[in-house]
Amino acid sequence: MIKTKPQTLIVDNKYCPGCGHGVINRLVAEVLEELGVADQTIGAVAVGCACLMIDTFGIDWIQAQHGRAAAVAAAIKRCRPDRTVLTYQGDGDALAIGFSETMYAAIRNENITVIFVNNTNFGMTGGQMAPTTLPGQKTTTSPYGRDCAVTGNPLKAIDMLKTLDIAYAARGAVTTAAEIAKTKRYIRNAFEAQLNGEGYSFVEVLSPCPTNWGMTPLAAKERVASTIQEYYPVGEFVKRGEKRHD
Ligand SMILES: Cc1ncc(C[n+]2csc(CCOP(=O)(O)OP(=O)(O)O)c2C)c(N)n1
Ligand code: SF4
Questions:
Q1: What are the backbone dihedrals phi and psi of residue 199, each rounded to the nearest 5 degrees, phi first?
Q2: Which protein residue has the closest C-alpha to ligand 2 atom 8?
Q3: Nearest ligand to the C-alpha atom of residue 123
Q4: Could you identify the atom of ligand 1 that is nearest to the CA of residue 130?
Q5: Is the CB of 127 within 6 Å of ligand 1?
Q6: Which ligand lies nearest the alpha carbon of 212?
Q7: pTM for this one?
Q8: pLDDT tens readout for residues 43-98
Q9: So what's the architecture of 21-243 in CATH?
Protein backbone atom coordinates (compact mmCIF):
# COMPACT_ATOMS: atom_id res chain seq x y z
CA MET A 1 0.00 0.00 0.00
CA ILE A 2 1.51 3.33 -1.07
CA LYS A 3 1.06 6.14 1.48
CA THR A 4 3.22 8.82 -0.12
CA LYS A 5 2.64 10.49 -3.48
CA PRO A 6 3.46 7.99 -6.26
CA GLN A 7 6.68 8.80 -8.12
CA THR A 8 4.81 8.30 -11.38
CA LEU A 9 2.97 11.59 -10.73
CA ILE A 10 5.91 13.72 -11.81
CA VAL A 11 4.15 17.10 -11.84
CA ASP A 12 1.00 18.38 -10.11
CA ASN A 13 -2.11 17.67 -12.17
CA LYS A 14 -3.81 20.37 -14.25
CA TYR A 15 -7.45 19.55 -13.52
CA CYS A 16 -10.05 21.95 -12.12
CA PRO A 17 -10.53 21.99 -8.32
CA GLY A 18 -12.82 19.13 -7.32
CA CYS A 19 -12.40 17.22 -10.60
CA GLY A 20 -12.38 13.45 -10.20
CA HIS A 21 -9.64 12.91 -12.78
CA GLY A 22 -6.90 13.85 -10.28
CA VAL A 23 -7.98 11.16 -7.81
CA ILE A 24 -8.34 8.58 -10.57
CA ASN A 25 -4.89 9.44 -11.93
CA ARG A 26 -3.47 8.85 -8.49
CA LEU A 27 -5.22 5.50 -8.07
CA VAL A 28 -3.88 4.29 -11.42
CA ALA A 29 -0.36 5.45 -10.47
CA GLU A 30 -0.53 3.73 -7.09
CA VAL A 31 -1.72 0.46 -8.61
CA LEU A 32 0.93 0.44 -11.35
CA GLU A 33 3.64 1.09 -8.77
CA GLU A 34 2.32 -1.53 -6.34
CA LEU A 35 2.26 -4.08 -9.15
CA GLY A 36 5.83 -3.05 -10.07
CA VAL A 37 4.95 -2.27 -13.70
CA ALA A 38 4.89 1.54 -13.81
CA ASP A 39 8.18 1.77 -15.71
CA GLN A 40 7.03 -0.65 -18.41
CA THR A 41 3.51 0.71 -18.95
CA ILE A 42 2.30 2.42 -22.12
CA GLY A 43 -0.85 4.54 -22.12
CA ALA A 44 -3.10 5.63 -24.97
CA VAL A 45 -5.28 8.72 -24.69
CA ALA A 46 -7.26 10.52 -27.37
CA VAL A 47 -9.03 13.80 -26.52
CA GLY A 48 -10.63 15.47 -23.53
CA CYS A 49 -9.41 16.33 -20.07
CA ALA A 50 -7.90 12.85 -19.85
CA CYS A 51 -5.14 14.09 -22.12
CA LEU A 52 -3.96 16.61 -19.55
CA MET A 53 -2.26 13.71 -17.77
CA ILE A 54 0.29 13.03 -20.48
CA ASP A 55 2.40 15.90 -19.08
CA THR A 56 2.00 14.94 -15.44
CA PHE A 57 1.80 11.13 -15.34
CA GLY A 58 5.28 9.81 -16.03
CA ILE A 59 4.81 6.79 -18.29
CA ASP A 60 5.11 6.48 -22.06
CA TRP A 61 2.03 7.87 -23.82
CA ILE A 62 0.67 7.90 -27.31
CA GLN A 63 -2.16 10.22 -28.29
CA ALA A 64 -4.64 8.65 -30.70
CA GLN A 65 -7.25 10.43 -32.76
CA HIS A 66 -10.57 11.17 -31.04
CA GLY A 67 -12.10 7.87 -29.88
CA ARG A 68 -9.38 5.63 -31.26
CA ALA A 69 -7.38 4.93 -28.09
CA ALA A 70 -8.58 1.33 -27.67
CA ALA A 71 -7.59 0.44 -31.25
CA VAL A 72 -4.17 2.02 -30.75
CA ALA A 73 -3.70 0.33 -27.37
CA ALA A 74 -4.64 -3.05 -28.84
CA ALA A 75 -2.04 -2.60 -31.57
CA ILE A 76 0.62 -1.63 -29.03
CA LYS A 77 -0.17 -4.66 -26.88
CA ARG A 78 0.00 -7.01 -29.87
CA CYS A 79 3.41 -5.60 -30.84
CA ARG A 80 4.71 -5.41 -27.28
CA PRO A 81 2.95 -8.08 -25.19
CA ASP A 82 5.65 -7.59 -22.53
CA ARG A 83 4.26 -4.12 -21.73
CA THR A 84 1.27 -3.22 -19.59
CA VAL A 85 -1.06 -1.20 -21.81
CA LEU A 86 -3.97 1.03 -20.84
CA THR A 87 -6.31 3.55 -22.28
CA TYR A 88 -7.56 6.42 -20.17
CA GLN A 89 -10.67 7.98 -21.71
CA GLY A 90 -13.69 10.13 -21.01
CA ASP A 91 -17.27 9.10 -21.74
CA GLY A 92 -17.59 11.42 -24.74
CA ASP A 93 -14.43 10.01 -26.26
CA ALA A 94 -14.89 6.31 -25.50
CA LEU A 95 -18.66 6.00 -26.03
CA ALA A 96 -19.55 8.64 -28.65
CA ILE A 97 -17.06 8.85 -31.51
CA GLY A 98 -15.03 5.95 -30.04
CA PHE A 99 -17.90 3.54 -29.44
CA SER A 100 -16.83 1.19 -32.19
CA GLU A 101 -13.20 1.04 -31.09
CA THR A 102 -14.18 0.54 -27.46
CA MET A 103 -16.59 -2.28 -28.27
CA TYR A 104 -14.46 -4.05 -30.88
CA ALA A 105 -11.45 -4.14 -28.56
CA ALA A 106 -13.78 -5.86 -26.08
CA ILE A 107 -15.31 -8.16 -28.70
CA ARG A 108 -11.77 -9.31 -29.60
CA ASN A 109 -10.96 -9.62 -25.89
CA GLU A 110 -7.79 -7.61 -26.42
CA ASN A 111 -5.46 -7.94 -23.45
CA ILE A 112 -5.60 -4.25 -22.48
CA THR A 113 -7.05 -2.24 -19.59
CA VAL A 114 -9.52 0.57 -20.27
CA ILE A 115 -9.96 3.23 -17.57
CA PHE A 116 -13.20 4.96 -18.47
CA VAL A 117 -14.05 8.22 -16.69
CA ASN A 118 -17.79 8.91 -16.69
CA ASN A 119 -18.59 12.52 -15.77
CA THR A 120 -21.86 12.56 -17.75
CA ASN A 121 -20.70 15.23 -20.19
CA PHE A 122 -18.00 16.36 -22.62
CA GLY A 123 -15.82 18.14 -20.07
CA MET A 124 -13.00 19.77 -21.98
CA THR A 125 -15.18 21.35 -24.66
CA GLY A 126 -17.67 23.02 -22.32
CA GLY A 127 -20.13 20.44 -21.02
CA GLN A 128 -22.02 19.14 -24.05
CA MET A 129 -24.35 16.13 -23.82
CA ALA A 130 -22.55 12.78 -23.87
CA PRO A 131 -23.94 9.25 -24.34
CA THR A 132 -23.87 8.97 -20.54
CA THR A 133 -25.79 12.19 -19.76
CA LEU A 134 -28.64 11.36 -17.39
CA PRO A 135 -32.31 11.68 -18.41
CA GLY A 136 -33.38 15.27 -17.82
CA GLN A 137 -29.82 16.50 -17.26
CA LYS A 138 -29.18 20.01 -18.53
CA THR A 139 -26.04 20.46 -20.61
CA THR A 140 -24.96 23.12 -23.09
CA THR A 141 -26.51 21.05 -25.91
CA SER A 142 -29.57 19.92 -23.92
CA PRO A 143 -30.50 23.21 -22.23
CA TYR A 144 -34.01 21.98 -21.36
CA GLY A 145 -32.70 18.67 -20.03
CA ARG A 146 -31.92 15.45 -21.94
CA ASP A 147 -35.11 14.24 -23.59
CA CYS A 148 -34.69 10.48 -24.02
CA ALA A 149 -37.69 10.34 -26.36
CA VAL A 150 -35.46 12.24 -28.80
CA THR A 151 -31.94 11.07 -27.89
CA GLY A 152 -32.54 7.50 -26.76
CA ASN A 153 -31.53 6.38 -23.29
CA PRO A 154 -28.09 6.87 -21.72
CA LEU A 155 -25.56 4.24 -22.66
CA LYS A 156 -24.61 1.88 -19.86
CA ALA A 157 -21.36 0.54 -21.28
CA ILE A 158 -20.99 -2.27 -18.77
CA ASP A 159 -24.45 -3.65 -19.57
CA MET A 160 -23.21 -4.18 -23.12
CA LEU A 161 -19.71 -5.32 -22.17
CA LYS A 162 -20.93 -7.98 -19.79
CA THR A 163 -22.56 -9.83 -22.67
CA LEU A 164 -19.11 -10.25 -24.24
CA ASP A 165 -16.27 -12.67 -23.62
CA ILE A 166 -14.09 -10.26 -21.63
CA ALA A 167 -11.98 -10.72 -18.50
CA TYR A 168 -13.14 -7.99 -16.13
CA ALA A 169 -15.58 -5.08 -15.83
CA ALA A 170 -16.33 -2.93 -12.81
CA ARG A 171 -17.74 0.48 -11.97
CA GLY A 172 -16.47 2.59 -9.09
CA ALA A 173 -16.73 6.15 -7.85
CA VAL A 174 -14.41 8.71 -6.27
CA THR A 175 -16.76 10.12 -3.66
CA THR A 176 -15.97 8.82 -0.16
CA ALA A 177 -12.77 7.25 1.16
CA ALA A 178 -14.52 3.87 1.13
CA GLU A 179 -15.60 4.23 -2.51
CA ILE A 180 -12.13 5.41 -3.50
CA ALA A 181 -10.56 2.36 -1.81
CA LYS A 182 -13.04 0.09 -3.62
CA THR A 183 -12.31 1.77 -6.95
CA LYS A 184 -8.61 1.22 -6.38
CA ARG A 185 -9.25 -2.50 -5.86
CA TYR A 186 -11.18 -2.60 -9.14
CA ILE A 187 -8.31 -0.88 -10.96
CA ARG A 188 -5.89 -3.34 -9.43
CA ASN A 189 -8.07 -6.31 -10.42
CA ALA A 190 -8.22 -4.98 -13.97
CA PHE A 191 -4.44 -4.68 -14.34
CA GLU A 192 -3.95 -8.07 -12.68
CA ALA A 193 -6.28 -9.58 -15.28
CA GLN A 194 -4.06 -8.10 -18.00
CA LEU A 195 -0.87 -9.31 -16.30
CA ASN A 196 -2.42 -12.80 -16.08
CA GLY A 197 -3.15 -12.67 -19.82
CA GLU A 198 -6.90 -12.97 -19.28
CA GLY A 199 -7.93 -10.32 -21.81
CA TYR A 200 -9.91 -7.11 -21.86
CA SER A 201 -10.49 -5.31 -18.57
CA PHE A 202 -12.65 -2.22 -18.13
CA VAL A 203 -13.08 0.03 -15.12
CA GLU A 204 -15.66 2.80 -15.30
CA VAL A 205 -15.22 5.52 -12.69
CA LEU A 206 -18.04 7.94 -11.88
CA SER A 207 -16.39 11.32 -11.59
CA PRO A 208 -17.47 14.89 -10.78
CA CYS A 209 -17.01 17.72 -13.29
CA PRO A 210 -17.87 20.72 -11.07
CA THR A 211 -16.84 23.26 -13.70
CA ASN A 212 -19.36 22.18 -16.32
CA TRP A 213 -22.04 21.13 -13.87
CA GLY A 214 -21.95 24.65 -12.40
CA MET A 215 -21.50 23.25 -8.90
CA THR A 216 -19.09 23.55 -6.04
CA PRO A 217 -16.69 20.61 -5.67
CA LEU A 218 -18.68 19.39 -2.65
CA ALA A 219 -22.06 19.62 -4.38
CA ALA A 220 -20.64 17.88 -7.46
CA LYS A 221 -19.31 15.03 -5.32
CA GLU A 222 -22.72 14.72 -3.68
CA ARG A 223 -24.41 14.57 -7.10
CA VAL A 224 -22.19 11.58 -7.97
CA ALA A 225 -22.92 9.84 -4.66
CA SER A 226 -26.68 10.26 -4.99
CA THR A 227 -28.11 10.81 -8.46
CA ILE A 228 -25.38 9.33 -10.65
CA GLN A 229 -24.59 6.27 -8.56
CA GLU A 230 -28.30 5.51 -8.45
CA TYR A 231 -28.42 5.39 -12.25
CA TYR A 232 -25.03 3.73 -12.68
CA PRO A 233 -24.61 1.29 -9.77
CA VAL A 234 -21.08 0.54 -8.62
CA GLY A 235 -19.65 -2.94 -8.26
CA GLU A 236 -17.91 -5.71 -10.17
CA PHE A 237 -19.89 -7.04 -13.13
CA VAL A 238 -17.48 -9.38 -14.94
CA LYS A 239 -14.75 -11.27 -13.11
CA ARG A 240 -13.79 -14.34 -15.01
CA GLY A 241 -10.29 -14.93 -13.70
CA GLU A 242 -9.53 -17.38 -16.50
CA LYS A 243 -6.33 -17.43 -18.48
CA ARG A 244 -7.18 -16.78 -22.13
CA HIS A 245 -3.95 -15.67 -23.86
CA ASP A 246 -0.71 -17.63 -23.39
C1 LIG B 1 -12.18 14.81 -34.32
C2 LIG B 1 -12.44 15.71 -33.13
N3 LIG B 1 -13.68 16.18 -32.90
C4 LIG B 1 -13.93 16.96 -31.83
C5 LIG B 1 -12.92 17.29 -30.98
C6 LIG B 1 -13.22 18.20 -29.80
N7 LIG B 1 -13.19 17.54 -28.52
C8 LIG B 1 -12.13 17.71 -27.69
S9 LIG B 1 -12.37 16.97 -26.19
C10 LIG B 1 -13.92 16.43 -26.66
C11 LIG B 1 -14.82 15.68 -25.72
C12 LIG B 1 -14.19 15.14 -24.51
O13 LIG B 1 -15.15 14.66 -23.63
P14 LIG B 1 -14.91 13.39 -22.75
O15 LIG B 1 -14.34 12.31 -23.57
O16 LIG B 1 -16.17 13.08 -22.05
O17 LIG B 1 -13.76 13.81 -21.75
P18 LIG B 1 -13.70 14.83 -20.51
O19 LIG B 1 -13.12 16.09 -21.06
O20 LIG B 1 -15.10 14.98 -19.98
O21 LIG B 1 -12.81 14.17 -19.53
C22 LIG B 1 -14.22 16.84 -27.96
C23 LIG B 1 -15.50 16.56 -28.63
C24 LIG B 1 -11.62 16.79 -31.23
N25 LIG B 1 -10.59 17.03 -30.41
N26 LIG B 1 -11.40 16.00 -32.31
S1 SF4 C 1 -13.65 20.52 -17.21
FE2 SF4 C 1 -14.53 18.96 -15.85
S3 SF4 C 1 -13.47 17.03 -16.42
FE4 SF4 C 1 -12.26 18.76 -17.24
S5 SF4 C 1 -10.71 19.22 -15.66
FE6 SF4 C 1 -12.45 20.58 -15.30
S7 SF4 C 1 -13.76 19.50 -13.81
FE8 SF4 C 1 -12.34 18.00 -14.71
A1: 120, -155
A2: 19
A3: 1
A4: 16
A5: no
A6: 2
A7: 0.96
A8: 999 999 999 999 999 999 999 999 999 999 999 999 999 999 999 999 999 999 99
A9: 3-Layer(aba) Sandwich (3.40)
